[in-house]
Specification:
The protein contains 18 helices and twelve strands. By secondary structure, it is of the alpha/beta class.
C-alpha cells in the first residue's frame, strides 16, 4: 500500500517489494557480505583509538513514545570524528592505498610506503562528516586530500575538515553539484574519488565505504546478542548507513530481522521517491533541510541494491522533528543524556513522527510491545549549530558517560 499515512508532518510508504522470506542474494552480496564485513571489522579494530561505541537504553523515552523498549547505538564517540562516517571514509582511503601500493593496510599504517602513499591524492564531496572521515584517513596514512564543499556547508564543518590537513574547494550549488565537480576534477588531475555514492563504472570504492560502515551494525548485533529488536529506524541521505545497517541483519537474521524503516527529510526524499515509483528516482524536495548531512537528491545505486527489497518501509518527516529529537535527548532527567546532531537524530525523529500518528503506528506494527533500535549516527559535529538548536553547548548538556 502506497502512502499508508500522509500528512504535512509524515509520509509513509510500505514497501511491497520487501519479501521478508527472500534470501539475501548475489545482488546484495556484491555490496556487503560476511567476508567483506569481517575484513572491515578486522582492519578498523586495529586502528589507534578503536573501541566499540556504546548502546544506551532509554526506558523513560520508550514509555513516553508508547513502546516497550528503546535502545540507541551512540556513534558520537567514534574515534575523534564524532560520527559513524569515520568507519567508511577512512576505510575507503585505506583500501585505495592498499590497491595503489600493493601493500597491506597494516604496512601502510606502519609507514612502509611513505613515498608511494604521498603520491596519491584522494578527494570527495561532502556535507561534512564523510569529508572529515576521508581527510582523517588520508592524514593517518600520509596521502594528500582535497574535499569539495557546496555552498550550504557550515564554516564550522569546513574548519573541522581542514583540521585534518585537507585542502578545501568550495562549490556553488547543492551536494549533488559538488559530487559532480569532484568527479570532473579527479578525472582531470589523476586523483581518486572516495565517495559513498556510486554511479555506472564507479562501484568498487563506494562498496568499500559501505563495508566500513557495517562495523557499526556488527558491534550492535554483538551487543544485542539474542535480545533482538522488533523495529529498526535508520536515517538516510544517499543510503550508505541504511544499507550497511539493513544488509547485515538481513544476511544474518533473515526473516527474523527487525521491521526496517528508512527515514529521510521531506525535502531530501530520493529513497522514498525511488520506493514509491518502483525504480531509482531523484528526490522531489528542495534539499533545504536542517538535517544537512542527509541532504541528497540522488540515491546510491549500491545502497538501493539492498534497500529496494530489504527495507520494510520508507518514511519522510518534517524538519521540526529533528530539533525536537535533539532536545529530547539532551535534557532527560532519567534516561542517559545524549549529544546528537541534527542529522544523527533523524532515526529518533522518524520514530517520534510515527509514534504520534495512529495510522502509521498500526501500519508499521509499532505497538506497546515494540522494541526499537536506533543509530545516533553523529554527535555535535558543528557545536555552534548544535547550541543554536538546543540552546546549550555540548558541554552544558553534560552527556552521560
Amino acid at each position: 500500500m502506497t502512502n499508508t499515512a500522509q500528512n504535512p508532518e509524515l509520509r509513509l510508504h510500505l514497501n511491497w517489494r520487501c519479501d521478508r522470506h527472500a534470501p539475501y542474494g548475489d545482488r546484495q552480496r556484491a555490496v556487503i557480505d560476511h567476508t567483506t564485513r569481517q575484513k572491515a571489522r578486522d582492519t578498523i579494530s586495529a586502528w589507534p583509538g578503536y573501541q566499540p561505541t556504546p548502546m544506551l537504553e532509554l526506558p523513560d523515552l520508550a514509555q513516553k513514545l508508547g513502546i516497550a523498549r528503546l535502545r540507541i547505538k551512540h556513534e558520537s564517540r567514534r574515534f575523534t570524528l564524532k560520527s559513524f562516517k569515520a568507519l567508511g571514509g577512512a576505510y575507503g582511503v585505506m583500501r585505495i592505498l592498499e590497491r595503489e601500493t600493493g601493500l597491506g593496510i597494516d604496512a601502510i599504517m606502519a609507514g612502509d610506503a611513505k613515498e608511494q602513499v604521498a603520491g596519491v591524492t584522494v578527494c570527495c564531496a561532502t556535507d561534512g562528516n564523510h569529508g572529515r572521515a576521508v581527510a582523517w584517513g588520508a592524514q593517518l596514512a600520509g596521502a594528500r586530500c582535497v574535499i569539495y564543499l557546496h555552498e550550504h556547508v557550515s564554516q564550522g564543518r569546513e574548519d573541522a575538515i581542514a583540521a585534518y590537513g585537507a585542502d578545501i574547494a568550495r562549490i556553488d550549488g547543492t551536494y549533488d553539484d559538488s559530487v559532480r565537480q569532484a568527479a570532473e576534477d579527479a578525472e582531470t588531475n589523476g586523483w581518486i574519488v572516495v565517495s559513498d555514492t556510486s554511479w555506472p563504472g564507479y562501484e568498487e570504492i563506494p562498496a568499500w565505504v559501505k563495508q566500513g560502515y557495517t562495523v557499526c551494525m556488527g558491534e550492535a548485533m554483538e551487543q544485542l546478542g539474542d535480545d533482538r529488536p522488533s523495529h529498526l529506524f535508520v536515517q538516510a541521505g544517499v543510503g550508505g548507513l541504511a544499507c550497511a545497517a539493513i544488509g547485515p541483519v538481513w544476511e544474518d537474521w533473515g526473516a527474523e530481522r527487525p521491521f526496517c524503516a528508512v527515514v529521510e527529510p521531506h525535502e531530501a526524499d530520493c529513497l522514498y521517491q525511488s520506493a514509491v515509483q518502483g525504480h531509482m528516482a531523484n528526490g522531489l524536495g528542495s534539499l533545504d533541510t536542517v538535517m544537512a548531512c542527509l541532504s541528497a537528491g540522488e540515491a546510491s545505486p549500491l545502497a538501493w541494491a539492498i534497500l529496494e527489497t530489504g527495507a520494510d518501509a520508507f518514511i519522510t518527516i518534517d524538519d521540526h522533528f529533528s530539533p525536537d529529537a535533539m532536545k529530547t535527548l539532551a535534557v532527560s532527567q532519567t534516561d542517559p543524556r545524549m549529544v546528537v546532531g541534527e542529522s544523527g537524530c533523524a532515526g529518533l525523529a522518524g520514530l517520534m513522527a510515527v509514534a504520534a500518528d495512529p495510522l502509521a503506528r498500526e501500519a508499521m506494527g509499532l505497538g506497546g510491545d515494540a522494541d526499537v533500535l536506533l543509530i545516533a549516527s553523529e554527535g555535535a559535529t558543528d557545536p555552534a549549530i548544535y547550541q543554536e538548536i538546543v540552546g546549550m553547548t555540548p558541554d552544558e548538556v553534560g552527556e552521560t558517560q
